[in-house]
Write a structure and sequence with these properties.
Keywords: Hydrolase. The protein has 386 residues and is an alpha/beta fold. The chain is built from 16 helices and seven strands. The structure holds guanosine-5'-triphosphate and magnesium ion. Magnesium ion binds next to helix 5.
């Protein structure tokens, strides 16, 4: 829905005709709440609501414009908006996402995962600085499954990203703090799209590899990098097969000093393990690949970047990049609906109704199946028909 292009900004102090035109457009895009058969009093309230919505709308328009122009403060504000749990903010966030997508920009979205202490922050600092020196704009986001506990971990990590933090062409944002991973993930995906619209060339999405979070990061990335540490013995560090299957590039970090030989051995082990996996259609010859890096000594980073560019170019040429993004959009669409429905169960009046039915099931007054069927019928009644 394009109301105004960036070249035709909606001024806050617009004239009457302009405001009326905007209101008419609001009606057309169904934000206008007027219904037929309302009393004058009700209509007065409705007008107030409409005016407020128009103001919000103009703010969103302005925010989107500033963001597309590359204003960092606007980007930070926009991310705060998509992270908000408030229902009215969600409406604005959806509007904003639509507005900024018209910028039609594309960033390379890189997912990065690794167990605690493997060197993710150090890697992002050195790798990010290398990209910045190449003249690229880099954004760093995080999906931190433990953020509910720590309140966002990248912040504390900023000490490990001292140089990158000070770069004007780098933008670092800690993980949104929220209890449920699904919510954090959705917000990070939207933040990725905002960074992209703001003109960042590479968006690095970090996650601590402790299970489910790798999957959600892979679902918002073009490429998934797995960072590993040199193994002590010859075991494969208990990396789950599912995670291995997601990796496009395995980087064995800390390939320096005393750890160099162990890192080389580990790399060979993983190269062998990758070879045994089922071949994926989205991989050219030689991928997925295992290489060594030293984030601390800036070794292997240029080579890793060359590998990334080679893989992306191939996937782009063969249509896999676009296909993956389209499948990811489908995934998030389904995920959003699922999460939205689950949230409804936690909202009144359903919440109380469910609690009451639970009590009746407990007391044997109604069977579990009947109770569930009635709750679902009530849910259907509240959601209405599409
Ligand atoms: N020798 C060596 N040490 C490294 C390298 N990269 C990181 N380290 C060290 O490993 C430790 C952990 O590094 P971080 O970058 O904080 O690791 P992380 O994966 O971000 O850790 P969490 O944020 O806790 O998950 C630090 O002491 C780093 O100095 C490397 O390439 N070589
Ligand atoms: Mg870290």
């Amino acid at each position: 829905m394009a109301l105004y292009g960036p070249s035709q900004p909606l001024r806050k102090e617009g004239n009457r005709a302009e405001a009326l035109g905007a209101l008419r457009r609001l009606i057309n895009c169904r934000i206008w709440p007027v219904q037929t058969g309302q009393s004058p009093n009700e209509q007065g309230t409705v007008c107030k609501i409409a005016r407020r919505r128009l103001e919000e709308f103009m703010n969103i328009e302005h925010l989107a414009m500033r963001l597309i122009e590359g204003d960092r403060r606007a980007l930070a504000q926009a991310i705060t908006l998509v992270e908000s749990g408030r229902a009215d903010h969600r409406v604005q966030a959806i509007e904003l996402m639509e507005r900024v997508q018209s910028a039609g920009r594309e960033a390379l979205r890189l997912g990065l995962s690794g167990t605690p202490g493997v060197g993710k922050s150090t890697f992002i600092e050195s790798f990010g600085m290398m990209l910045v020196h190449e003249g690229l704009k880099v954004a760093v986001l995080a999906v931190d499954p433990s953020s509910a506990r720590t309140g966002g971990s990248i912040l504390g990590d900023k000490t490990r990203m001292e140089l990158l933090t000070r770069e004007k062409n780098a933008f670092i944002r800690p993980s949104p703090s929220q209890t449920e991973l699904g919510g954090v993930a959705r917000r990070t995906r939207e933040a990725t799209l905002l960074c992209e619209a703001a003109g960042y060339d590479v968006v690095l999405i970090e996650t601590v590899g402790v299970g489910q979070s790798e999957t959600v990061v892979a679902q918002m990335s073009d490429l998934f990098l797995l960072l590993l540490a040199p193994a002590g013995g010859d075991e494969l560090q208990g990396v789950k097969r599912g995670i291995m299957e997601m990796a496009d590039l395995i980087l064995v970090n800390k390939a320096d000093g005393d750890l160099e030989a162990a890192a080389q051995r580990t790399r060979a082990d993983y190269a062998g393990a990758l070879h045994l996996l089922r071949k994926r259609p989205q991989d050219p010859q030689g991928f997925p690949k295992a290489t060594t890096v030293s984030a601390l000594q800036d070794k292997g980073l240029v080579e890793a970047w060359a590998d990334i560019k080679q893989l992306v170019a191939w996937r782009k040429e063969h249509g896999y990049l676009a296909k993956t993004r389209m499948e990811q959009a489908q995934y998030w669409f389904a995920q959003d609906i699922r999460n939205g429905l689950l949230r409804q169960l936690e909202t009144e009046p359903l919440k109380t109704a469910i609690a009451e039915y639970a009590k009746r099931v407990e007391q044997g007054e109604i069977t579990a199946s009947r109770a569930a069927a009635q709750v679902l019928a009530a849910l259907k009644a509240t959601t209405g028909q599409i």
